[in-house]
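#structure-requests
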Amino acid sequence: MSARPLRLFLDECCSFRLVQDLKSFFAIDYPDTEIIHLAKSFSRGTDDAVWLSQLGPEWIVVTKDVGRAAGSKLPVICKAKAITHVVFTAAVINAGYSAQKAALASCWEQLFLLRQLPGGTCVKLGFENKSSGARHYHLRIGGKSLNAFLGQGK
């Protein structure tokens, strides 16, 4: 476990339930973890530039916003403000709330490694289905696994 607590800020496109479910699940092992949902501090529909300007680079934003929609600029603002952000892949989004919760829980230890990345890095959180039927969740940067990107193996 890292000495610095993990700080996650969930975009409004993420379920508010994720905050309480993750806090409850990790409360004993990670009591200093901060998980905040945008709706706790801002009105629905608040422009990304407004709320992102109030976050520092110690936060990791979790979102479904890949920045492809017209007017969508979250990834651009995160990069400019050196805020690392985790973006659910379309497969995780389409799989629903349970898959999003499982994805974050499965990659929990790796989320601490994100602080080693250059500020503003976009990290994709996705999964692959194994031939056994098991689902394997993973963090990727530019098509590489997080560990490979950090030079820690495959």
